[in-house]
UniProtKB/TrEMBL annotation:
This is Putative endonuclease. Signal peptide: none annotated. The keyword Transferase does not apply. Belongs to the UPF0213 family. Residues 3-82 form the GIY-YIG domain. GO terms for molecular function: endonuclease activity. It comes from Mariniflexile fucanivorans.
């Protein structure tokens, strides 16, 4: 089974701001966030420099991923923190894991 869709969470350098997104090309999306943070700063992720991947999930079908993204966006910060900590206890940058 191939996983083509991702729900992901990025954070800023100090892990104080989170961005939740959905994509079918996570490498490209992370590159876009980084580029925007260095240049135009037009998107939320770019404006707040949320360029550090701290969490991701894979999905076979887009409908599942979109539903999960909406679910996560509705959570309180404490619940998001626990999700990230369970997956990535040190909140390390996982960008290189997916490249």
């Amino acid at each position: 089974m191939q996983h083509n869709y991702f729900v992901y969470i990025t954070a800023n350098k100090y892990r104080t701001t989170l961005y939740i997104g959905f994509t079918n090309n996570i490498q490209n999306r992370l590159s876009q966030h980084y580029f925007d943070s260095q240049n135009a700063k037009k998107s939320f992720a770019g404006k707040y420099a949320c360029i550090y991947l701290v969490y991701y999930e894979t999905f076979e079908f887009p409908k599942q991923g979109i539903a999960r993204e909406k679910e996560l966006k509705g959570w309180r910060r404490e619940k998001k923190n626990k999700l990230i900590s369970d997956f990535n206890p040190k909140w390390e940058d996982l960008n290189m894991q997916i490249f």
